[in-house]
Design goal:
Layout (H helix, E strand, L loop, with lengths): L6 E7 L5 E4 L4 E4 L7 H19 L8 E8 L4 E7 L3 H8 L5 E8 L4 E8 L9 E5 L2 H7 L1
Antiparallel strand pairs: 1-6, 2-3, 4-5, 4-8, 6-7, 7-8
This protein binds zinc ion.
The site of zinc ion (ZN) has 6 residues, from loops.
Length: about 140
């Protein structure tokens, strides 16, 4: 029997999440010093889940994927992007200059996925980023 994933939330933030462990008090506190791998490790973990989603919907390494969002930035404008159908393509498209946090939600054994971004201009969160197959025309645009 395979265990089915009902839903999962994975967060990625580009501010440092390194912790220092204090053996005497048995507590971990935010580190003054960044060991440098905190973002890379979180991103790699999230990328695996995104790949699982792309595989579940048959778009892993497809030519392109379409990202839609109905509210981006302080003006909360709608937008979309056509990017390479990989975790890197998606994560690079959602990255912005400055601090941000991405909150990804996966459901129904990775067949469903959406994401919200929190940043200086999106203090209460962007709209939902959704992912779908790009049409042939859109795929040509991205080439
Ligand atoms: Zn760090």
């Amino acid at each position: 029997m395979t265990l089915e994933l009902v839903s999962a939330e994975i967060e990625l933030t580009n501010s440092c999440t390194c912790e220092t462990y204090d053996e005497e008090t048995d507590t971990a506190t935010h580190s003054e010093y960044c060991y440098g791998d905190c973002f890379t490790e979180q991103r790699a973990y999230l990328a695996e889940a995104i790949d699982a989603h792309l595989a579940a919907i048959g778009l892993l390494d497809a030519d392109a994927i379409r990202i839609d969002c109905d509210a981006i930035g302080w003006q909360r404008r709608a937008g979309y992007a056509i990017v390479e159908s990989t975790a890197d393509g998606i994560l690079d498209a959602l990255a912005i200059n400055g601090d941000y946090t991405l909150n990804f939600w996966f459901g129904d054994n990775y067949t469903r996925c959406h994401a919200t971004r929190y940043s200086h201009d999106e203090p209460t969160g962007s709209g939902l980023f959704t992912f779908s197959a790009a049409s042939t025309d859109e795929t040509e645009l991205s080439a």
